[in-house]
Every structure is written in C-alpha cells, then in structure tokens.
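User: Let's play a game. I give you a shape written as tokens, and you guess the letters that built it. Ready? Here's round one.
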C-alpha cells in the first residue's frame, strides 16, 4: 500500500508540469525505476525531447504499482510558483550530487583508427585528405614557430599540440560564414577558412602587414573577412560576446550561428554561466565548444569541478549537450555538424564538451613538466594522438601512405620557414599606427598623446628602435 502511494506521488511529479501530450514510460536502472517523459513542447525550449527524473530511492515501489497508478489523482497538489510550476512532496530529501550515470563520450573511431558502429560520417576522399593535410600543416606550423620563439625571433607562442584533430574537424563541420569567437588555441579554424601561412607569420613577427600591426600578442589572430573575432587574453570574455552575436543573427534571420571556443578552466568563469543562461532564455543559435584538455595551465581538471564535467552543466541551464572524444576527428565532425543544424534550425544553443589532452606546454611561458608526469605526456603522444588516429583511418581506406606523408610534411615545413623569413624581412609598422584603427576621427586626447610620444623620441632618439619608421 505504501509503495503504491509513493508511486503515485512520483508519477505526479513526472506528469504535471507538462502538457497532456507528454508520453510517460517507466524504465529500470538496476534495482531502481525512473520515469521518462517525452514531450514535443520541450524540443522548442532547448531542453530536448526527453527529461530523466531522479529516482527517490526511498520509494521502494514495485514495477506493477508504477504502471497501474492513476496519474490524475490529487492533481491539486501542485505548486504554481512564479519561478516554476512543480509538484509538492512530503518527503524531506535532497537530490543527489550527480545523475545516476555520467554522460557518455561519443566516438566513431577506435584509438587505432578502426570504425566503430554505423554512424560514420560520409566523408569523400578529397574532403578527408584536406582535413588531414590541414592537421599536419598545423603541427608543422606550431613546431617551426615554437622553435622560432625559443630563438628570440618573437615574444610569445602557444601550440595546439594534441588538439590539432579537434581544431580542423570543428572548422570543417561549420559553415565558413558562422561567426567564431575563439580563445587562443583555435588557429586551425582560421587555417581551414583560408588564412595563409604568410599571414600567420606576419602577425607573429608583428610587421606592417600583420593583422595586429605589432599591437597584439603574437598568437592573437583575427580576421573580419573570415568571420573570426580577434583573440583576447582575458578568459571567458568571448562567451557572452558570442551570445550577443548569435542573438543578432537570429533577429536578422541569417540562418547562421555563432560559435565560441573555451577551455574547461574558462568554464569556471562567471562569463560562461551568464552566457549559457542568456543563450538558453533568449533561444540563441550559438555553439558553446569546450576543449576539455585536462589542464587549466597547471591546475588539473580534478581541482576545477566536482560535477559531471562541462557537459553535465547543460541540463541545469536547459541546453542540449553532448560529450565527444576530441581526439576522434570523425566524431567531432559529426557532433559539431549535428549541433550546428540544431542551433540554426531551432534557434537554440548547444553545448559540446570535447575531451582531449594538451600535449604541449600551456605556452612558451610555461614548463608543464613541473606539474605533470612526463610519462603522462608520452602516453598521449604515442597512444592517443588524434592526428595519428585519423591517418590510420585514411590509410585503411587507401587514401594516404608513407610516401605522401613524407612529401607533404617536407613541403609544408619549407613553406612555413620561407614565410617566417619573409615576415622578418618586412618593415615594422610606423609609429602612427599606434594611434590608429580605434576611432573614425582621432580624438583630441589621443592626438596629444601622439605629440608627446614624438617629442620624447626627438629628445631621446637612442632609446627608440631603429627599425620602426616614424
């Protein structure tokens, strides 16, 4: 009798907040039962078509009592608060810290590059080869530029080592006109969209043809032509910006989406929580792509959160979410492509957590061997590298081989080195560029500052760089 009453309470909780069209089913997990509600109205809210209710383990209700109880009994026992319409309960208990099970990690390829299951994206040979070539190009670019920074040829650099497959797969799945708000480890998106190796070199060297004209950090790329906003060092600021841009696209019915990238460390910033909540409430077509590479500089993920990672936060904000193997390029391509379709078709945000590993140091200002085991780094380099996994898949289809690999890497390395040398030979930006590109017409206070700087140069020419035109 007690179990039957408890079961009716449970099903009232599951049933009442939604429309009569909701279909309920009872499912078993071990010795416990839970209710699943299917409601088409939920699809339009960004919550998805299915919600799982936490089981109150103290009920002890039998399967039969759950299936045969009266859903409508005591319907008045519902609390219509301003914040939510919810069911009452007379049981004092708290929801568990975690859902009964963790969100699984979607993958398509095994660690050895073997196809798993049936949901393998239909990539043609040309597309697949282009993706791999861009991954290799990103690897070579990072290797040459990292060594150049170590030689003192420019001030700062951060590599994508370990995350190249993620970079390119995301870029390939997006529309080239989707607006991207990056963090600082997504140059692969620019590379895919046509940002040239010479442009990368010009920016890092800081010559007069560089995007930042020497006023930005060396990896803080940007391109209005390629819909790629200039990178900011401040963590998380790009997230609410992406929501605003996505809302604009929605209002203008552009059928495009906004995309923002960030690490799991940046997801601890308030900008993440505010941005996701605004996107859910305003129904904004934006993709939140988290690169969970295990380390926020020297802070491991185990010290950053206790919940179910970043994807686990999506349901709390009413946002569809998915966790993906970020070192599986095919899985990332499939997930991002599907997420973009959801965002554009339904005007809703989607949260993707791409699980990967930062093999390289956080930047040239960091030595990661001071806080993590070298054996850990070696394991990810040798056993779980995303580029090698994708290459194995290509070779299994007869689309790549050792000769092609050697020739392409030699060609790209020679081109990157040549671009770097050409960038160093170009003039530095003139002094006047220090005061331009912000205002349509230079305000009085900025004009006064330029006059003061030029006067200082006139008085102390020995401290002014000889390679910077006045």
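Assistant: Ready! My guess for every position:
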């Amino acid at each position: 009798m007690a179990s039957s009453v408890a079961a009716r309470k449970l099903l009232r909780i599951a049933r009442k907040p939604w429309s009569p069209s909701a279909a309920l089913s009872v499912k078993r997990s071990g010795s416990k039962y839970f209710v699943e509600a299917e409601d088409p109205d939920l699809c339009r809210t960004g919550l998805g078509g299915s919600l799982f209710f936490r089981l109150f383990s103290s009920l002890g209700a039998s399967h039969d009592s759950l299936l045969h109880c009266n859903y409508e009994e005591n319907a008045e026992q519902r609390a219509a608060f301003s914040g939510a319409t919810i069911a009452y309960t007379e049981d004092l208990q708290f929801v568990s810290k975690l859902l009964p099970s963790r969100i699984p990690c979607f993958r398509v390829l095994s660690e050895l590059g073997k196809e798993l299951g049936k949901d393998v994206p239909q990539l043609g040979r040309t597309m697949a080869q282009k993706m791999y070539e861009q991954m290799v190009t990103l690897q070579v670019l990072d290797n040459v530029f990292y060594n150049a920074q170590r030689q003192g040829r420019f001030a700062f650099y951060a590599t994508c080592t370990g995350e190249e497959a993620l970079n390119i797969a995301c870029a390939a799945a997006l529309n080239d006109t989707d607006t991207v708000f990056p963090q600082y480890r997504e140059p692969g998106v620019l590379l895919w969209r046509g940002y040239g190796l010479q442009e990368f070199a010009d920016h890092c060297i800081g010559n007069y043809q560089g995007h930042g004209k020497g006023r930005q950090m060396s990896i803080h790329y940007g391109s209005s032509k390629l819909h790629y906003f200039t990178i900011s060092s401040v963590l998380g600021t790009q997230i609410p910006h992406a929501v605003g841009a996505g809302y604009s696209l929605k209002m203008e019915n552009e059928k495009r989406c906004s995309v923002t990238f960030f690490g799991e460390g940046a997801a601890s910033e308030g900008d993440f929580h505010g941005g996701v909540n605004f996107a859910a409430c305003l129904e904004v077509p934006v993709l939140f792509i988290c690169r969970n590479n295990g380390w926020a500089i020297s802070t491991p993920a185990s010290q950053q959160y206790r919940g179910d990672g970043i994807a686990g936060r999506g349901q709390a904000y009413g946002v569809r979410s998915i966790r993906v193997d970020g070192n599986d390029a095919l899985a990332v391509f499939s997930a991002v492509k599907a997420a973009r379709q959801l965002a554009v078709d339904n005007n809703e945000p989607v949260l993707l957590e791409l699980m990967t590993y930062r093999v390289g140091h956080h930047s040239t200002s960091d030595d990661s061997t001071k806080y993590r085991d070298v054996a850990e780094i070696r394991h990810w380099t040798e056993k779980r590298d995303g580029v090698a996994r994708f290459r194995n898949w290509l070779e299994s289809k007869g689309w790549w081989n050792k000769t092609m690999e050697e020739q392409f890497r030699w060609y790209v390395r020679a081109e990157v080195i040549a671009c770097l040398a050409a960038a160093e030979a170009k003039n530095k930006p003139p002094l006047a560029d220090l005061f331009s590109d912000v205002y349509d017409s230079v305000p009085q206070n900025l004009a006064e500052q330029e006059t003061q700087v030029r006067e200082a140069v006139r008085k102390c020419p020995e401290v002014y760089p000889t390679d910077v035109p006045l």
